[in-house]
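note to self — DONT lose this again. spent like an hour looking for the file last time. sequence + predicted structure for the chain T wanted, 156 res
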Amino acid sequence: MDVLFKNIRRVIMKNIGFTLVELLIVITIIATLSGIGYAVFGNATRSARDAKRKADLEQIRTALEMFKADNGRYPTNDASSTCVIDPSLGFNAYLASMPIDPKSTVYRYCYHFRTATTYDLCAHLEGVAGNFACGPAAYSCQIGVNSQCTYSVHNP
């Protein structure tokens, strides 16, 4: 009887474990699922940052409209400027805090005064290809690099 249990135990212990092929298949499946998850997560976060940029531009546009309602005109900036939203423009009082790009401080929101009744606001979106010129000339939305705006908001 003792010999029978030893033989059964030896057979069971011999078959415990995984083969190399089984391990490779499991590793491949896990790697594939991880890659798909990473790609989906990357697209979702990029879309969320782009939505935040659009919402920030709408917030700035609301502040500009309140500035115009109080002053009869939009704030002016130098036509040769690089389209930067400068605190000295005066409409920051209508914002709780100046919105900044959600990914980094390298990208910025641009404001370009055209006339007393028109302006351009623009930002660089990650999910949009191509360039959009903010204002009469192509203004860069990225500090130190020629990466132009890809999304624009104008006065209503």
